[in-house]
Amino acid sequence: MASKKKAKSQKAKKKAAKPAAGPARNAKQRPIALYYWPTPNGWKISMMLEECGLPYELKPVNIGKGEQFTPEFLAISPNNRMPAIVDPDGPGGKSISVFESGAILQYLGRKTGKFYPKDERKRVEVDEWLFWQVGGLGPMAGQASHFRNYARREGNEYAYKRYHDETHRLLGVMNKRLEGRDFLTGSYSIADMACWGWIAAIARWDDTLEEFPNVKAWMQRIRARPATEKGFKLGRELREQQSNDPKADEERRKILFGQRARI
Ligand SMILES: N[C@@H](CCC(=O)N[C@@H](CS)C(=O)NCC(=O)O)C(=O)O
Fold it and tell me: What spacing in Å lies between the alpha carbon of 252 and ligand 1's midpoint?
């Protein structure tokens, strides 16, 4: 009996000596540099970093000013698009840079073991919906937004309809998938984080989401998470500081639209 007690207390001592999980472990990590501007693609990563409790340092990339074309940024993200990250504690303890939001989410999922299941069947499901977002929902909703917010409607009716129809079709697919489910795959994952910002953007298009009640409920469910709140708010003030002056707007358009290869 006495030896059993002794063993128990030794076990308890051993447990107490272990470094605390979570914040204490995170405190030792060097911050990940997050190259970011507050847009649906940027929010994917700020949400994931917040969910994982990873320390990070914000490196704003003002895409309206053309900061995505600086040689320093292109060395990290050759596609002149944000988001991108630099993790000083990458594989083998060496720094690594990652561009493309899907690749960043997978990297962070593998690094932390969070929101990206290790079980191959579950992982395949997450990958399916992640790629569905990066190859479908994102580009289609992005083009629809362009024709909705920036292009003249007159003369562009065909493009407007094409991208809105395709986004509508994708919302139907997502609505069906979410029938009887809280999240796109078993539990909250990087696939949900990838989709959320675009759905939040679409929610501002008239009453489009009213046709897709499962998508709307999913959006609100994720919106209620504290990490979503923080990730979604990150850098909002940077965009709000931008001048609304028509001249400044014209300058932003010149930088963002009509880009061609820089050979
Ligand atoms: N496929 C990229 C898309 C990223 C993207 O389109 N980012 C936009 C902002 S949402 C950007 O950086 N635009 C800068 C530009 O158009 O020059 C990803 O998923 O990371």
Answer: 15
